[in-house]
């Protein structure tokens, strides 16, 4: 995609500000385990962080659509940094309940830079290049999940998990302020709403697909850990995830180089179905080496699926509510991941990792069917 004026600065700012998404939870768990000696407290606090973000994100997205996005994002970044700094100060000193409340507050004040950037793309990119823009966004997001953990590893060597959390605070503020400083003037609100709000059948079915994708991802992450542990190669988990991310980057670059004729709401379920089929193939892996090879094709449809999902949201939803729509996607995927994590444990214990890989595939496949079915029904209604 040709780089256009007004793209680089907000894009870089949003990427910097999103790095904490990849390391905040892990840093929090490590800090609380170190300070309190309790995995229970650490786990509850991490759950509070995720729950706070999932619940508050749609409210923040609606506020971004209706009010001054610069003021909202800047205020949230400062509040997030303050809550994170308070956790560093209070962990191991204050009662565990105080730290959990601070973790919920940190999650609730997470600046939704992902949604803000996706809502910005139509203002800085020609309409015929939006597919490429959303594919690029999803591809670059994978870099966050590769670079963030590497940064955390370095910070742990220098100063421990407290430094990782403080880095989250600093990166959030720096990235958010860089993003809002580069925002172009918002155009006037559309006077004609020829698209639905956030509750249209097509978009609702894609939200259902996104939720089940989250379940599949949650099952997968836990199953990868169990598989590597069973094969006496637990340190390989990070490598497996990194290979998955590399495949996702390659798939995103390939997908973004093509101008697609099929609308994104019809492409998205097909990409999720491809992901489901590749998830099922993981059940055939006899060892870590073969599983590592299978992680490359597994990643290929990932960025295209996420990018197409966001492109479909921009196309289907009322232009005055796009930020809210993007935050709904984030929230439901996050809730799906939590559900998948919870469901994976019993499946692994009672049926093994192969069954868990198949369960992840089934969740993604069900999501693809729901998405395709809802979009098809909505399309049939419009053709009557």
Can you offer a commentary on this structure?
The protein is mainly α. Helix content is 81%, strand content 0%. The protein has 15 helices and no strands. It is globular. Mean pLDDT is 88; it is low at 190-194.
What is the rounded Rg? 20 Å
- Count of distinct structural domains: 2
CATH superfamily of the largest domain: MFS general substrate transporter like domains
Spans with pLDDT under 50 lasting ≥5 residues?
190-194
Q: What do the pLDDT scores average to?
A: 88
**Percent of residues in β-strands:** under 5%
End-to-end CA span: 38 Å
Biggest sheet details = none
Fraction of residues in H or I helices: over 70%
List the helices and strands in order: HHHHHHHHHHHHHHH
Question: How many distinct beta strands?
Answer: 0
The first-level CATH class of the largest domain is given as Mainly Alpha
Assembly annotation: single chain
Shape summary = globular
What is the CATH topology descriptor of the largest domain?
Growth Hormone, Chain: A
Determine the number of helices (DSSP H or I, runs of at least 4 residues).
Answer: 15
List the defining traits of the structure above.
384 residues; mainly alpha; Growth Hormone, Chain: A; 2 domains; 0% strand
